């Protein structure tokens, strides 16, 4: 039993909307797992199924070795959750909410709470209604991070944080990982995912389209090449992994899958290279590609 | 762009959102007035019969407190008498709910911010919601006027305007309270409390005999509604009181809105504690914390209403045995022979039916927490759904029991003080109050079932409470058939203290409530949250 989360072929519809359409997700124990996808891809829905708040229509979901629907209460004492949209009780102070959620989960570390309050520069005496969006998120974050849960489920936890606080958040998650905790982090912020995550799953339209370590994903990225050649290029179009080929006389522009780079460069150099510009692969480009093809598909 | 830019757009939005809510208030209220007219002409066809009814009313403070004085014994006059005391209060309730809904509630939900960023002046939302509240009140006025036209145009118009005027004043009251507080709940609470005070002032003023404090009725817009005297030589100048006070309140609300920031109220909010106290330790602590404010408010209202109703009870005895009509009237409401006890039973039953309103709002907290996204973080901790729901239901049940006890005790003190028997009346009436609990629990259980099985329709729970209340208040007068009266759980309760306590109905009502609650909770455990 190595995986903290194991989801296969998950289905969930709301009326006519198929929010989840055969989603797979595996999160190993002790890893920080990035969970990405465009708006409406089904990230929050997956998380809410994992929390037993929604009931799946089909597929298999295991959480910490248990069934997220039937064993919800037992499992919840071992995890902490930060919702994407934090709403607080208007007349409870932030400190009260943190303590309350901690007690409901079965205890929280008072020293760690104080430390987190200080690091996140959060005033716990304010009432729920007077917190800004970012500060509401900090309340939920402090409550989650101060717990001794073995699994943290964070749904876009930094969407309201300023860059300084985002930095604090990254430090905290790194510390959590070093303590051996598992983190499922849904996010739209690429740099955050690159900085924190061991592995990533990208979903789209309720389906998993890509999953793997960051290195594996980098492998899926494309390098863009612009070359000035001695003669007209030949045979490039036939090579596997070449995209967006644009030939103008002796000038050639193309994108190439990183794993085909070698073959393509060899082919180019056959025509004699006068000038070469190579843009390194970025994850951003990969993500955008997945996000965009979603827009195209719709 | 001036302060009022965009009022028209917001108004259309409000009317679109209220296309069910406004008719759902206006139609039943208007039809109730028309049905009352029909019933009265059926029950008291002759002038002599109506005169006898009126004569008995004049001597009885208690009935005057409930229904106000009879100014005229025509069919129209008696309709105005019967509807003119509670009807305008209901119109006021409608208007204040509408205005808070479009002002503070929108602001609290953050939707006003979205709207405010568009081409909308800062006073436009207030103006649009006031127009909505005034408009609904005036539509009701027109409806009633048209419905009673056959009884004489002037009286019909006056009664319509009594409703409409009260509606407009409480729309304006709500416009002010919505500026003062930060939450819609508090804005509704303060405006509702003012409505309650207005009702009690009117009742006290009406109950006062010659030389008594009859003038206090003039302090209440609900008293004005009556003193407009529809069908009895209408005093049209009273309309100026409505118009003047509404104008002053509207101006106040507009001045306040110009002075404050979006989202802020004028009543200051203080910082809270660093951390949770020992009592905020679990779901019960949380449910109590969230519900106690409303309960305190209700308890205060129960204490006040109980004392006033108790104090005027003795008047029912002054009636003597000679008057058949009034005796029938009271007995219709409360049961058998002893008129004082019948009256007390009617009042206890009235307090019980109001507790049904309390319990519906307390149960609907569950839905509010759920749809507001505040249930999610709690249910993501080691708290099961049933336990979470049970905590709120225990608070709702205990709260209802507490209200009924407080109401009973206050009634006992109020009545006991007038007959010098507080020690005897207090426990008797407290017990009578608690007898109402099974029916209250039945209404609560219906709400739980709707919440569990059809959460999107949770608001329909209100109709259970209002049907119960309407049947209880108007059923006997409208001579509804028995099966219709039986729709109200309260119809099955023993009419204590005028009738002995019988255990059977209490047991089966409680059992039924338990079954419905269990069914609701099972359905809740099986469904999606959201
Ligand atoms: N309670 C609901 N009722 C109906 N449709 C829903 C409900 N919850 C989610 N959906 C739909 O399911 C789909 C997935 O939504 P979800 O919230 O999981 O997306 P997400 O990936 O979290 O998006 P975002 O990045 O915007 O947070 C969307 O099309 C959404 O409209
Ligand atoms: Mg989401």
TrEMBL record, chain A:
<protein>
    <submittedName>
        <fullName>ABC transporter ATP-binding protein</fullName>
    </submittedName>
</protein>
<dbReference type="InterPro" id="IPR027417">
    <property type="entry name" value="P-loop_NTPase"/>
</dbReference>
<keyword id="KW-0813">Transport</keyword>
<dbReference type="InterPro" id="IPR003593">
    <property type="entry name" value="AAA+_ATPase"/>
</dbReference>
<dbReference type="Pfam" id="PF00005">
    <property type="entry name" value="ABC_tran"/>
</dbReference>
<dbReference type="InterPro" id="IPR050763">
    <property type="entry name" value="ABC_transporter_ATP-binding"/>
</dbReference>
<dbReference type="Pfam" id="PF13732">
    <property type="entry name" value="DrrA1-3_C"/>
</dbReference>
<keyword id="KW-0067">ATP-binding</keyword>
<dbReference type="GO" id="GO:0005524">
    <property type="term" value="F:ATP binding"/>
</dbReference>
<feature type="domain" description="ABC transporter">
    <location>
        <begin position="5"/>
        <end position="230"/>
    </location>
</feature>
<dbReference type="InterPro" id="IPR025302">
    <property type="entry name" value="DrrA1/2-like_C"/>
</dbReference>
<keyword id="KW-0547">Nucleotide-binding</keyword>
<comment type="similarity">
    <text>Belongs to the ABC transporter superfamily.</text>
</comment>
<dbReference type="InterPro" id="IPR017871">
    <property type="entry name" value="ABC_transporter-like_CS"/>
</dbReference>
<dbReference type="InterPro" id="IPR003439">
    <property type="entry name" value="ABC_transporter-like_ATP-bd"/>
</dbReference>
<keyword id="KW-0046">Antibiotic resistance</keyword>
TrEMBL record, chain B:
<feature type="transmembrane region" description="Helical">
    <location>
        <begin position="126"/>
        <end position="150"/>
    </location>
</feature>
<keyword id="KW-0812">Transmembrane</keyword>
<feature type="transmembrane region" description="Helical">
    <location>
        <begin position="80"/>
        <end position="100"/>
    </location>
</feature>
<protein>
    <submittedName>
        <fullName>ABC transporter permease</fullName>
    </submittedName>
</protein>
<feature type="transmembrane region" description="Helical">
    <location>
        <begin position="343"/>
        <end position="364"/>
    </location>
</feature>
<feature type="transmembrane region" description="Helical">
    <location>
        <begin position="236"/>
        <end position="257"/>
    </location>
</feature>
<feature type="transmembrane region" description="Helical">
    <location>
        <begin position="190"/>
        <end position="216"/>
    </location>
</feature>
<keyword id="KW-1133">Transmembrane helix</keyword>
<feature type="transmembrane region" description="Helical">
    <location>
        <begin position="464"/>
        <end position="485"/>
    </location>
</feature>
<feature type="transmembrane region" description="Helical">
    <location>
        <begin position="156"/>
        <end position="178"/>
    </location>
</feature>
<feature type="transmembrane region" description="Helical">
    <location>
        <begin position="429"/>
        <end position="452"/>
    </location>
</feature>
<feature type="transmembrane region" description="Helical">
    <location>
        <begin position="393"/>
        <end position="417"/>
    </location>
</feature>
<feature type="transmembrane region" description="Helical">
    <location>
        <begin position="505"/>
        <end position="524"/>
    </location>
</feature>
<feature type="transmembrane region" description="Helical">
    <location>
        <begin position="295"/>
        <end position="313"/>
    </location>
</feature>
<keyword id="KW-0472">Membrane</keyword>
<feature type="transmembrane region" description="Helical">
    <location>
        <begin position="20"/>
        <end position="40"/>
    </location>
</feature>
């Amino acid at each position: 039993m190595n995986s903290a989360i194991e989801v296969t072929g998950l289905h969930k519809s709301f009326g006519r909307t198929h929010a989840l359409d055969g989603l797979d997700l595996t999160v190993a124990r002790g890893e920080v797992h990035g969970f990405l996808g465009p708006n409406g891809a089904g990230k929050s829905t997956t998380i809410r199924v994992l929390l037993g708040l929604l009931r799946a229509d089909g597929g298999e979901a295991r959480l910490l070795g248990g069934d997220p629907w039937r064993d919800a209460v037992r499992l919840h004492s071992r995890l902490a959750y930060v919702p994407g949209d934090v709403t607080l009780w208007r007349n409870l102070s932030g400190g009260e909410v943190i303590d309350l959620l901690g007690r409901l989960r079965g205890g929280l570390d008072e020293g760690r709470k104080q430390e987190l309050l200080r690091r996140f520069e959060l005033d716990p005496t304010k009432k729920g209604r007077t917190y800004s969006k970012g500060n509401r998120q900090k309340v939920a974050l402090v409550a989650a991070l101060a717990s001794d849960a073995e699994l943290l489920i964070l749904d876009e936890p930094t969407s309201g944080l300023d860059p300084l606080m985002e930095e604090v958040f990254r430090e905290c998650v790194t510390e959590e990982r070093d303590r051996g905790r598992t983190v499922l982090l849904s996010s739209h912020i690429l740099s955050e995912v690159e900085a924190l995550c061991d592995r990533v799953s990208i979903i789209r339209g309720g389906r998993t389209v890509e999953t793997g370590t960051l290195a594996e994903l980098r492998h899926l990225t494309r390098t863009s090449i612009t070359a000035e050649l001695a003669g007209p290029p030949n045979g490039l179009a036939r090579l596997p992994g070449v995209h967006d080929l644009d030939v103008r006389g002796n000038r050639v522009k193309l994108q190439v899958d990183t794993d085909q780079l070698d073959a393509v460069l060899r082919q180019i150099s056959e025509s004699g290279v006068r000038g070469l510009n190579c843009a390194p692969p970025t994850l951003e480009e990969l993500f955008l590609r997945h996000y965009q093809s979603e827009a195209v598909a719709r | 762009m001036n302060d009022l830019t965009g009022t028209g757009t917001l108004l259309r939005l409000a009317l679109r959102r209220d296309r069910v809510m406004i008719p759902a208030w206006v139609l039943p209220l208007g039809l109730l007035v028309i049905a009352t007219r029909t019933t009265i002409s059926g029950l008291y066809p002759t002038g002599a019969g109506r005169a006898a009814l009126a004569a008995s009313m004049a001597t009885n403070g208690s009935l005057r407190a409930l229904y106000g004085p009879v100014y005229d014994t025509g069919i129209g006059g008696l309709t105005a008498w019967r509807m003119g005391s509670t009807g305008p209060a209901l119109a006021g309730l409608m208007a204040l709910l509408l205005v808070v809904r479009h002002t503070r509630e929108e602001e609290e939900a953050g939707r006003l911010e979205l709207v405010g960023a568009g081409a909308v002046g800062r006073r436009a939302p207030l103006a649009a919601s006031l127009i909505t509240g005034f408009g609904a009140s005036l539509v009701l006025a027109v409806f009633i006027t048209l419905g009673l036209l056959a009884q004489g145009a002037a009286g019909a118009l006056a009664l319509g305007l009594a409703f409409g005027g009260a509606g407009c004043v409480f729309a304006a009251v709500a416009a002010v309270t919505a500026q003062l507080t930060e939450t819609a709940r508090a804005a509704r609470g303060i405006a509702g409390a003012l409505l309650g005070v207005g009702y009690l002032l009117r009742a006290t003023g009406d109950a006062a005999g010659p030389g008594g404090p009859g003038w206090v009725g003039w302090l209440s817009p609900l008293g004005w509604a009556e003193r407009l005297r529809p069908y009895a030589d209408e005093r049209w100048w009273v309309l100026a009181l409505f118009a003047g006070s509404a104008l002053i309140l509207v101006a106040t609300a507009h001045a306040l809105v110009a002075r404050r920031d979006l989202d802020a109220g004028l009543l200051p909010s203080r910082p809270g504690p660093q951390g949770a106290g020992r009592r905020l330790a679990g779901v019960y602590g949380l449910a109590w914390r969230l519900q106690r404010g409303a309960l305190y408010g209700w308890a205060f209202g129960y204490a006040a209403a109980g004392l006033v109703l108790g104090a005027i009870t003795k008047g029912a005895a002054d009636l003597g045995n000679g008057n058949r009509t009034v005796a029938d009237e009271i007995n219709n409401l409360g049961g058998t022979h002893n008129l004082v006890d019948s009256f007390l039973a009617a009042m206890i039953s009235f307090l019980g039916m109001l507790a049904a309103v309390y319990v519906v709002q307390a149960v609907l907290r569950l839905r509010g927490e759920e749809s507001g996204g505040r249930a999610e973080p709690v249910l993501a901790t080691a708290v099961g759904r049933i336990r979470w729901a049970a905590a709120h239901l225990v608070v709702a049940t205990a709260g209802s029991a507490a209200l009924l006890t407080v109401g009973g005790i206050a009634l006992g003190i109020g009545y006991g003080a007038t007959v010098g028997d507080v020690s005897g009346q207090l426990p008797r009436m407290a017990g009578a109050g608690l007898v109402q609990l099974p029916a209250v629990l039945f209404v609560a259980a219906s709400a739980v079932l709707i919440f569990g099985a059809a959460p999107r329709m949770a608001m329909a729970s209100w109709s259970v409470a209002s049907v119960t209340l309407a049947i209880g208040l108007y059923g006997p007068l409208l001579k509804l058939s028995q099966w219709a009266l039986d729709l109200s759980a309260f119809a099955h309760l023993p009419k204590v203290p005028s009738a002995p306590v019988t255990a059977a109905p209490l047991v089966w009502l409680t059992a039924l409530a338990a079954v419905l609650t269990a069914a609701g909770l099972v359905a809740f455990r099986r469904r999606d949250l959201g």
